[in-house]
User: Which sequence fits this backbone?
């Protein structure tokens, strides 16, 4: 009886329409935030910040962006990494070319630039769906990376398009340590995740889901398909763009166009498949899973091999990784298309009844 | 019934609709008066659903004129029909499967909501106020159709009969002045049909909603409709009050002869 809504009677619609209507959820989120903002900075090591936590948050943000487009609005995209690239290069160029522009403003502008590009590549969605749309976004993936390599202006004439990001200065203070960068990324990601949650629980999100579930019925109800789909592309690309800017500025410090490869787009897609299509939390679960699994296997496999006295080659790890990923993705696609988030939901429903089976 | 039937609000003149070589509708004219229940009947494939699709802009007829509230309607998209307060339900349930009953019905109010996505994202301005206001209206619809108990249920977990009712709720949430119902009682048991009939009559009675109804159950049609138009192979073969239609030779031959 730890987790249940029984006894929490909602006497107003306002109470029923809160962002997290169930008290335990509210508490859970609050505890998570306190841990993330206060606990983690005290406990985690530098390695954890720069190798695990920061990329986790950034990929979770990108996955969230893709989830808005694919999970909520039902438009498949294989170009997430390219939109991240747009964000990264846009932020770099705003810093470079606009005198005295604050870093946060260039992040916002980076998001907006990515949103604009996203709308452009979202236009085919007005005519085509599903597989064919995925192919069109694939074109975005290759075209954008090609542009960034082809036009030296975009990388300030650096060779092969490599850019090194400018200093992170916020309110006159330069962020240097991993923990400072972590806190910046965390704040942005939390803010954008709450904004996403707000969008999907209101009319904007309902319009997206209506278009996803049954577009004829949606338009008969009065939803204009074109602006609704393009808005999804814009918001999604905004999120990916900001994620890309953070990826360049707070994670790697130096990026090249080829770094934003199709592989990375697929990785983000796998995150939402495993985490949960159409779930904000699923984006985080999926990102954690995909990023942590290799680390886990790196440690677990040699250990297991040692245990059984088997010879072990290091490249085996990466082979097994691919196998495990493949198997997991097939499992989720076939057995649980709503991913880890859905499994969590089921666990909560069980918990709601616990300890009584009925 | 002592209700007031008003003037003609929808006048369809010589409508013809083709899909390639298939003539779905041929030179059909009829009108709908304000506040009436207007039934469209006819055998399978007669063109009934196509007719509704023409009325709310899903299909565009190649020939003919549509007068709505006295003005000729230009070619228009379905979302425009919604803005002219025309709502509808579908022959094959067209609910939003990934959403709850409540969200489905809330979606029905979308044309009345003004807040933009930034207000939603930041939950300021009109966003919160609107969500609450519209929730109230939606709750009234939920009460009206007696579906309080399934409010939070994902629609795909509901039995067929209830899904049909939720679809009606979603249409009613728009507070339409004209409601197009495509076989709202198909596949229902007797009890569910009675409920649905009662709801349709109540909507018509209490809100004065004009209703265009496609239905195969002759008992129901003759019972609740004010006027009936009969289609067969895309042509109109009868039009009038239920008694007239019932005794129309062509209708008996074409329609009842077809095995209904
Ligand atoms: N989108 C479409 N494309 C091609 N043909 C269509 C389309 N919609 C309807 N038709 C054709 O138009 C004719 C009329 O179909 P319609 O669905 O309007 O009939 P109906 O009277 O509603 O039949 P039912 O009682 O089976 O629902 C049929 O021959 C059908 O095949
Ligand atoms: Mg039909």
Assistant:
């Amino acid at each position: 009886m730890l987790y249940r809504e029984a006894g929490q009677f909602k006497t107003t619609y306002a109470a029923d329409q809160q962002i997290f209507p169930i008290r335990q959820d509210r508490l859970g989120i609050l505890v998570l935030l306190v841990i993330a903002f206060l606990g983690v900075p005290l406990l985690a090591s530098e390695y954890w910040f720069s190798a695990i936590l920061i990329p986790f948050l950034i990929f979770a943000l990108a996955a969230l962006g893709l989830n808005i487009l694919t999970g909520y609005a039902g438009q498949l995209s294989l170009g997430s990494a390219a939109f991240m690239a747009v964000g990264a290069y846009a932020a770099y160029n705003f810093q470079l070319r606009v005198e005295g522009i604050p870093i946060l403003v260039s992040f916002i502008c980076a998001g907006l630039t990515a949103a604009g590009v996203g709308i452009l590549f979202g236009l085919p969605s007005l005519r085509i769906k599903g597989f064919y749309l995925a192919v069109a976004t694939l074109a975005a993936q290759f075209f954008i990376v090609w542009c960034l390599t082809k036009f030296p202006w975009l990388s300030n004439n650096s060779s092969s398009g490599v850019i090194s990001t400018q200093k992170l200065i916020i309110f006159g203070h330069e962020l240097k340590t991993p923990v400072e960068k972590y806190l910046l990324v965390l704040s942005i990601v939390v803010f954008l995740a709450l904004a996403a949650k707000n969008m999907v629980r209101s009319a904007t999100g309902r319009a997206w889901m209506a278009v996803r579930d049954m577009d004829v019925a949606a338009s008969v109800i009065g939803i204009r398909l074109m602006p609704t789909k393009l808005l999804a592309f814009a918001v999604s690309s905004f999120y990916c763009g900001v994620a890309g800017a953070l990826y360049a500025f707070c994670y790697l410090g130096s990026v090249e166009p080829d770094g934003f490869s199709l592989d990375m787009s697929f990785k983000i897609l796998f995150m939402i498949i495993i985490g949960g299509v159409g779930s904000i939390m699923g984006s985080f679960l999926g990102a954690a899973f995909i990023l942590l699994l290799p680390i886990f296997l790196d440690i677990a496999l040699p250990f297991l091999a040692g245990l059984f006295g088997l010879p072990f080659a290091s490249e085996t790890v990466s082979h097994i990784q691919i196998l495990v990923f493949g198997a997991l993705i097939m499992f989720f696609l076939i057995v649980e298309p709503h991913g880890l988030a859905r499994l969590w939901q089921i666990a909560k429903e069980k918990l709601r009844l616990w300890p009584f089976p009925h | 019934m002592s209700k007031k039937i008003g003037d003609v609000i929808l006048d369809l003149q010589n409508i013809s609709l083709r899909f390639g070589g298939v003539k779905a509708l041929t030179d059909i004219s009829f009108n709908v008066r304000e506040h009436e229940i207007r039934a469209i009947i006819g055998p399978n494939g007669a063109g009934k659903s196509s007719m509704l699709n023409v009325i709310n802009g899903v299909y565009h007829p190649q020939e003919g004129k549509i007068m709505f509230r006295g003005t000729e309607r230009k070619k228009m998209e379905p979302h425009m029909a919604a803005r002219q307060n025309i709502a509808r339900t579908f022959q094959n349930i067209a609910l939003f499967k990934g959403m709850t009953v409540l969200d489905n019905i809330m979606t029905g109010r979308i044309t009345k909501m003004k807040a933009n996505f930034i207000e939603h994202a930041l939950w300021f301005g009109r966003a919160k106020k609107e969500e609450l206001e519209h929730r109230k209206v939606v709750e009234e619809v939920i009460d009206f159709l007696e579906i309080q108990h399934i409010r939070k249920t994902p629609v795909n977990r509901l039995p067929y009969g209830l899904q049909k009712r939720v679809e009606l709720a979603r249409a009613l949430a728009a507070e339409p002045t004209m409601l197009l119902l495509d076989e709202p009682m198909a596949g229902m048991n007797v009890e569910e049909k009675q409920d649905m009939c009662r709801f349709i009559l109540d909507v018509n009675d209490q809100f004065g909603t004009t209703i265009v109804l496609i239905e195969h159950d002759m008992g129901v049609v003759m019972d609740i409709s004010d006027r009936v138009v009969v289609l067969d192979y895309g042509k109109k073969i009868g039009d009038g009050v239920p008694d007239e239609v019932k005794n129309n030779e062509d209708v008996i031959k074409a329609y009842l002869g077809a095995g209904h």
In short: Chain A is about 70% helix and 0% strand. The longest helix of chain A spans residues 225-252. The mean pLDDT of chain A is 90. The pocket of adenosine-5'-triphosphate (ligand 1) is lined by residues B 19, 22, 24, 42, 44-50, 91 (CB under 6 Å).
